Amino acid sequence: MKVNIVFAILIIFQPYLSFTQPPVNRYTVNLFPNITETTNVLFSTNVPRPNPGGGFYETITGYPLNVDEFSTTPINLYMNIFQPTGDTLKKRPVIIISFGGGFVAGSKDHWSIRLMAQELAKRGFVTAVIDYRLGMNIFDEELSKRAVYRGVQDARSAVRFFKANAAGTNSYRIDPNNIYIGGHSAGAFLATHNAYLDMESERPASTYVWPQGCGFLDLSTCYCPDQLCLDCVGNNQAYSGHAKAIFSLAGAVGDVAYMQSAANPKLVMFHSEDDDTVPYNNGDPFSGITWIVVGDDLPTVYGSLPMSARANTIGLANQFFSYTNRGHSVHEETSSTLYPDIIPGISNWFFLQLLKPVTHIITGKTKVCNSTPIQTYATQSGLANYYQWQIIGGSFINMHPSQPFVTVQWSPEAPVKSLSLTPYSVHDAKGDQTIINITMSSAFQNNWTSNVDGMWNASSNWSIGYIPESCHNVIFPAQIIPITVTVPQNQQYQIKSINVGNKVTVKISSPTQLIIQN
Asked: What pLDDT score was predicted for residue 517?
């Protein structure tokens, strides 16, 4: 009859046992063979872009590298969004990716930027490639900082777009608390400054009202308008445009002092020592060509090496992929392929640092009396969304993957008995498996471990880790200084045997019962 009851219970809980398991290794392997792209999604409207200033260099290059900061045209900005085809997860992390081009060239359609977005989406992320405003004055060190600040504002507007969407229809099914940003070269500048230039006091002076020479032979002075606060340009300004973490491909930051504490966004960097466009260490950008065009008119920036050193100093989690011979295109192996370590380097970093659930400890009895085969085990609550329990040498009586506890029935005859747990986060990120091994017996030795007075029902005082049970041979070792162990009143305890050493008193007050089986 007992077997029939257990069988009936298992039948009742069969729907729970077949609960759909999250995909294995999401974010660390390509789980989705196809992606779905939504093109030209408007995320920022009527943002002021500086107009070309003309002159010799703009004429021969066609690039806006001598812009009039005091003269602007309102434009709209767009992004392309990539999602894993067929994915049903309701809460997904987002990676925003920005192109390079020295703030004077490039677009969201650059092949390697798109390829990164597609490959990361195949691993389970929602990704987006974004436009940002181009135009720079490379002939003035202070004015050139305005180009970076503009781009940072636009990247923050992209972050805000996803936060606003999540607060509304959440049509992209994203987690607004896990929005990351990265890019290559100038696009990496947007990421690093999104992460670390995050206070009004850190704004370069030239991003406020600032003079710019204009007119014939600069005989008069024009004034550049205030670029306003970080989240004061673009749409959805009620939200913060600060990303949670970043990746940087051949990027730099204007000042490592912007990186202030271990609580700053975590970062993963890729940079090659032979990069002659953005310094690996510190110096002026475009070191290989600036002497031809602009002399020494660009500000000193700090590349991945000093950024990593600064992060280590302040205890900020970071990973630095350093190379010697990849040049500035640190991620592009050929004209159409990425180096094989780029996508895993980015996705694994975000997975390990931000998405993977913490290792879960299983609490419960590992030494089980033959007479009490039914046991309950539990783990931390609220730290995972799905609990994959597995058992050897027993069966589940009560188990639901959404609950952090199970009830099992162990089989005394089974040669191996174990219980394992693999947690999954709300993002379907797989955690490490925890395993406990179970021993069953008709007799265990359970020693008192304290040398001071104590209570019988204090689990920490017993060698097995919990208070004595019906199959326990209880031993109180002899003491140098007398101690008293008090059995709580109005309780009943059963043990197999008891051995009380010298200078130990076991105090039992009526109506407490201590029943010895032998």
From this structure: 81
Q: pLDDT for 225-246, tens place per residue?
A: 999 999 999 999 999 999 999 9
DSSP assigned state of 196: H
What is the spatial distance between Cα 82 and Cα 146, in angstroms, rounded to a whole number? 30
Q: Where are the alpha helices (DSSP H) in 247-385?
A: 290-293, 304-314, 342-350
Please enumerate in sequence order all residues whose Cβ is within 8 A of that of 189, keeping only pairs 6 or more positions apart, or say none. Answer: 148, 151, 152, 183, 251, 252, 253, 301
What residue numbers bound the domain in which 84 lies? 35-355
CB-based contact 130:179 (threshold 8 Å)? no
Give the type of residue at 245: A
Do 165 and 246 contact (CB within 8 A), yes or no? no
Report residue 381: phi and psi, to 5°: -95, 155
Mean pLDDT, the chain, rounded, equals 92
25 lies in a domain? no
Residue located via tokens 């130990």: 504
Q: Is-contact 323 272, C-beta < 8 A?
A: yes
Phi, psi angle pair for 314, to nearest 5°:
-95, 5
39 belongs to a structural domain:
yes
Q: Looking at the domain assignment, is residue 29 inside a domain?
A: no
Q: Tell me the per-residue pLDDT of 392-415, one tens digit each, with 9 for 90 and over.
A: 999 999 999 999 999 999 999 999
* Same-domain pairing of 115 and 12: no
Q: Which of 355, 374, 408 is where one domain is finished?
A: 355
